[in-house]
Amino acid sequence: MKAERLSKRLDQVAQMITQTSLAPIRLADIGSDHAYLPAYLALQDQIEWAIAGEVAQGPFQSAQATIDSYQLQDKIQARLGDGFEVVQVEDQINLATICGMGGSLIINILEGGHARKVLPDHLVLQANNQVPQLRRYLQGMNYQLIDEALVEEKGQIYQILQAMRQDQVTLLDDRQLLFGPYQLMKQGPIFKRYWFNEQDHRQKVLDQMQGLNKETLSNKDQAKQKQLRQEIEWIEEVLQND
Asked: Tell me, what is one Gene Ontology molecular-function annotation carried by this entry (predicted)?
């Protein structure tokens, strides 16, 4: 499989995996999208073995078709199941990827892996939304962020997180949870575009809420307004910091 078969998003995930110090890598790709990622890594001899996990029959068959087409049956096993149900302790998985899902769904999947005691020490995650909540969850589970990336593809900007479980983690403050500690340090052009759009979105939501009758606003709505004002202020500060 050539590199161009991977999307920019998955190519960045692959780069994060190959840059880890793990050897050998035994991968669980949860929600495997035709098994493109594990197939690419296997063909590059970057992993020892992988599970391509799918929750529905159609995607499972697509993953199996990719494995068969590249004759990777000894390197990758497609499994049908919900989240980490496809992983067994004896698989000795040491890295998991979950990409292309909402943040809350990723958290639920990680919770399932934790409950079954099969959650590996290394994670590479790409959430389509609720990324600050995912960062907060990870640090609560003793996973330290070790890298982050932003990838722009077909008009969409995706956030990718790499985390490693540690005995003690450095807790992030609310500002770091929002932007990402590594993104705050990098602040490239994609970062600026992403947060310019996020600022506009938050301002529109706040304007709509401010048009409501203040006497009818619930405590939850008032707290949301306060949060939006704070986040807009932080975004303005970051965007002005050239």
From this structure: tRNA (adenine(22)-N1)-methyltransferase activity
**Ranges assigned E (strand) in 166-209:** none
Q: Indicate the pTM of the whole model.
A: 0.94
Q: DSSP characters for 58-125?
A: HHHHHHHHHHHHTT-TTTEEEEESSGGGG--GGG---EEEEEEE-HHHHHHHHHHHHHTT---SEEEE
d(CA 3, CA 106): 26
Q: Residues 175, 233: contact at Cβ < 8 Å?
A: no
Residues 6+ apart with CB under 8 A from 59: 31, 32, 33, 34
How is residue 6 annotated by DSSP? S
Mean pLDDT along residues 150-173: 96
pLDDT reported for residue 4: 46
3 band by pLDDT with thresholds 50, 70 and 90: very low
Give the span between the Cα atoms of 117 and 195, in whole angstroms: 37
What would the pLDDT profile of 98-157 be if each residue is shown by its tens digit? 999 999 999 999 999 999 999 999 999 999 999 999 999 999 999 999 999 999 999 999
Beta carbons of 139 and 172 less than 8 angstroms apart:
yes
Four-point Cα dihedral 19, 24, 29, 35, nearest 10: 90
Question: What distances in angstroms separate CA 108 from CA 84, 97, 133, 174, one per listed residue?
Answer: 10, 14, 12, 22
- Spatial contact of 31 and 56, defined as CB atoms under 8 Å apart: no
